[in-house]
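Researcher: Please translate sequence to structure tokens.
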Amino acid sequence: MIFVLKRKQLIGIVCVLTVVMIGVSLWKNGMSISVLSDNWGLSFPSPGEPPVGNATADFLKQYDAWFTGDTGEKTIYLTFDAGFENGNTPAILDALKKHNAPAAFFVVGNYISTAPDLVKRMVEEGHLVGNHTFHHPDMSQIADKASFEKELQQLEALYQECIGTEMPKFYRPPQGKYNEENLKLAKELGYKTIFWSLAYVDWYTDNQPTHEEAFSKLLPRIHNGAIVLLHSTSQTNAEILDELLTKWEEQGFSFGSLEELK
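Model: Translation complete:
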């Protein structure tokens, strides 16, 4: 019995050391240990400073993936995830137009099918419409290239039918769930993968944050090169966006397009 316990302990020690060695190797190659996770995540060590992602900017860049722009420039990149339309997008577009602020709307198949006029307005007013997949699945669970490609290409076809031109090659993984193979496949298909460096809990339509709660998250955490994720289904976002953009402008920020990321 004593021998068995010692053997188990030895196996446990070896396993721990193996994980540590893998982690050190990953870190030396420009990626954080937690990049093995399939959920995009952030931590904010200092107000006004770029957050720490669960993968480094250098690691992501090799796959043409981004979570911030140039952190030396006071530029904000506005992005909206659009899973369905519930009447808030027109006010969001109005605020963007007032501030001459370009944005990217990451849409799914249902959105283009049910709100084609809004998709056309987005394009006409100079915004990008990006690929959020056709069905909004957990893409980290899709292992084969054919299935991964189908999710993106089905949406591309629907977009082209609606707009008459090819869909811009910007992709956001649904729910931020991903793995390294996903990043490789997206790049092979010509896509930039877009994560984010600032977001807040705005997606529960029946439990929306107050204006004060929204500002308390979005104002102190803004930073140079921020890629901001908001949801177009949020009534709060529709109500505060004009004032929010004004406050960011007063802080010296301007708004850029994802097409500027290099």
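Researcher: Any highlights?
Model: The chain has a mean pLDDT of 89.
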